[in-house]
Protein: Chemotaxis protein
Amino acid sequence: MSLWLALALLVSVSGCSLLEVKLESGVEPLTQEQLNMRLFSREFSYRFYTQVETTADMIAANTDDKQVIANTLMWKINAEQNVQRAIFQAAPVAAMVDTWVFTEQMHQFFATGNGSQAFGEQQQFAIDASRALADQFAKTIKGFINNSRFERNYEFVKQYVAANPINDFSFSRVSAFDEWLSYSNINEFEAVTTFGTMPEVMSDMSDRMAMTTEQMPKILGWKAELYALYAEVGPEDIEIALNNMSETAKRFQTLMENSPEMMHQLAADLRVELTPLVNELSLVADDKLAQLSKEREAVSLMIVTERQAIAEIIASERAAAMQELDVLSAKTVDLVFEKVIVTIKSVILYVILFLLVVFFAPLGLGVWLGKRMGYKSALETVKAAASTSADTNFTKQSNSD
Structure:
């Protein structure tokens, strides 16, 4: 009855338009293109895992070379971890670009890079598998973006792979999304405007958890195989060791059950035999502790003595420095006074010369000029008198004639 009443109340409330509740988060959903990118990337991850694992297992099954087998394990471990990081980025565009770049980097690594000799005679299998994955990803991308965008993005992928190759089987790399934004002249704040609505975010988290749960046991198993391979311990060795431990435990348990008196006697004998050893160890330890205490006191005394010696040295050096400073100050004062006296003498000499030039030079010049002018005047007077006398004599001579 209560169930029917609850259902009736629910139907009545849902049918009343006045009590209709709408939950709007204000979050912008992903576009259809972004949803397609995310869906395709997640589907491609399963193809990637299958292709890499199948090829690596085939190579490992056809060789006895330990290094080649180790390379197949590292390929599966690091390739799948890197493709997970690339695909499960929050922004679908970033996931698409970075996954595309990683597939091309992996092909370049096996075809012409540092991994071109990783699998010996079976190298072509890895090249073909990585090439097929890269082509498949590019082909699918080309299906939902136009040709101009595809060519522009493919040109970026080629440039980025050439400038940032994978160097070893650790597949260490950084996301290419930031470089793609710069290449496409897109502001990083405008590149990702939304992560989707709440259902889309929850679906993304669910995919991540499912993928991690599925891949983690396999990756841990491959890491264990890689460790066992380098440690030269095979599954048979582990099984034999476990069987031996089990047999030993069973025998010990049987011995304990069937011979309790012998075990008690063995314990008593061990106690008797070990007591002198324990006492001797205690005496040696006490002796060493006493010796350590004496050495500690000697070290403390030596430290105090060294500190006192250092203090005395510093005090004597300080006194010597003060004496040298006093001598230097006295010499400096004497030198300064000598220079001041020389400067004063020079100034007095220059003042005397200045007075001679300013006052006595014009006076002497005036006296000299006066004497010069008087001499010229007397000379002209004499000449005039002589001329007058000559004229007079000439006149008298003419009259007498």
Notes: Confidence is low (pLDDT under 50) at residues 1-26.
